[in-house]
């Protein structure tokens, strides 16, 4: 309701949110993907819109409904996601929740690869994808005031998350463990995250991804109001 009245704490703000996996084609029928469902990114986008923000959600392929009140831009590859995220600038807030494929297939084939009896299987040649979070965080002219990333780790969670924050130049990192058997691993409804802002670590209790989105949106609103 606040959002409808234009009276939410984030009204007048523009947020870019990336969500879901990206997929990297091997040939017209095959691709490299990952386990991201987009639930956390979509929940963040919805929560920011609830607080009155104008939200551009740049999403890889997901089986989720569009969050209410968001402009959804659908992409497949990491390069497309980067281009759409940049095209959506300027913004006050960027939240990179997508599980961006780290590598793209260089020797992608325009024809379906066929098995040939007696021949060895094809070898995929990979090249690194651009880093969307780092690109937004290091944008010179139009860097969003608050750039937030995730760190999905299977080990040394907080150390790796601190490193990632520094390396990418973002303001906050939400660290979550994706070790096998962990309750916050890919696909679940809940998440257990730690918010690192450079000085302190705030460990949030396990909660639904929707609640993580709401809590993060509140924190963003408070930070921008300062
Ligand atoms: N990210 C991104 N673009 C990439 C890779 C990652 O925007 N090409 C963002 C993710 O959306 C996330 C953060 O960077 O917010 C961390 O992603 P993660 O996969 O944990 O980190 P990487 O830097 O890719 O390192 P690694 O996968 O080797 O741990
Ligand atoms: Ca990665």
UniProtKB/TrEMBL annotation:
Pathway: Cofactor biosynthesis; coenzyme A biosynthesis; CoA from (R)-pantothenate: step 3/5; Cofactor biosynthesis; coenzyme A biosynthesis; CoA from (R)-pantothenate: step 2/5
Entry keyword annotation includes RNA-binding: no
Residues involved in CTP binding: 102, 112, 130-133, 150, 164, 168
EC number: 4.1.1.36, 6.3.2.5
Catalytically driven reaction(s): N-[(R)-4-phosphopantothenoyl]-L-cysteine + H(+) = (R)-4'-phosphopantetheine + CO2; (R)-4'-phosphopantothenate + L-cysteine + CTP = N-[(R)-4-phosphopantothenoyl]-L-cysteine + CMP + diphosphate + H(+)
Any GO molecular function: phosphopantothenate--cysteine ligase activity
Keyword Coiled coil (UniProt): no
Keywords from the UniProt entry: Decarboxylase, Flavoprotein, FMN, Ligase, Lyase, Magnesium, Metal-binding, Multifunctional enzyme
Region (Phosphopantothenate--cysteine ligase): 15-226
Primary role: Catalyzes two steps in the biosynthesis of coenzyme A. In the first step cysteine is conjugated to 4'-phosphopantothenate to form 4-phosphopantothenoylcysteine, in the latter compound is decarboxylated to form 4'-phosphopantotheine. Catalyzes two sequential steps in the biosynthesis of coenzyme A. In the first step cysteine is conjugated to 4'-phosphopantothenate to form 4-phosphopantothenoylcysteine. In the second step the latter compound is decarboxylated to form 4'-phosphopantotheine.
Family to which this protein belongs: In the C-terminal section; belongs to the PPC synthetase family. In the N-terminal section; belongs to the HFCD (homo-oligomeric flavin containing Cys decarboxylase) superfamily.
Protein name according to UniProt: Coenzyme A biosynthesis bifunctional protein CoaBC
Originating species: Phaeospirillum tilakii
